[in-house]
What we know:
Blueprint: H1 20-24, H2 28-37, H3 41-57, E1 61-66, H4 72-80, E2 84-90, H5 93-102, E3 108-112, E4 125-131, H6 140-150, E5 151-162, H7 168-179, H8 184-200, H9 204-211, E6 221-227, E7 230-239
Parallel strand pairs: 1-2, 1-4, 2-3, 4-5
Antiparallel strand pairs: 5-7, 6-7
Helix pairs in contact: 3-4
Amino acid sequence: MxxxxxxxxxxxxxxxxxxxxxxxxxxxFGARLYNGLTRTRAIEIxxxxxxxxxxxxxxxxxxxxxxxxxxRLLLExxxxxxxxxxxxxxxxxxxxxxxxxNLAGIKVDLRQGNIRQTGYxxxxxxxxxxxxxxxxxxxxxxxxxxxxxxxxxxQAAFLFETHRDYDDNEFRAVLxxxxxxxxxxxxxxSPLFLKKQLKITYGIDExxxxxxxxxxxxxxxxxxxxxAGLPIWLRIKLPREP
Length: 242
């Protein structure tokens, strides 16, 4: 769900879950609140940058956005290339409803479900993507195995995830710049939500260790990148080899 995923989490989260439980039971007002809180210029830039990269990798076929949230990435992908078949999966039924409203008039397959067991056919998608919630998966190895199963042979998944191995001074400077034109409320709350996310997100070595226990172990690529200028992002390329 991206840049402010921590916005929907509280200290009362179940200790046995990294975050899935909270989003599974997210009420409608919580989904609407998240939709509003994440309407920032920085997230708009982030979504556009990711969408531009994804449409440069496929010009047709089926694309799945895992944890699609309000559906903004699918909306931008459609704007850039309406020939791509769009699919969105989210663990929150309330968030799926919000995405449906945001994507009204666009042909898209939206479903509520868990990436651990999606129900999609095997060898089905030309590209699978995810932004900013890998750290919330309770069973990441199983989730990656399901991605491997539903991805077409010879194609790849691209996950865009935050990591802990960033330069804090650079991060703070860019964040201040990004928030300059936002409302006072967003200037005060966005750093709190983002810092909470970064506190529990994985380090790069931890991501590599998780992937190393999956069918992507011999083919993955990790690369530090910036999105909306923020140096906290990691591009995870997961090719499904023949």
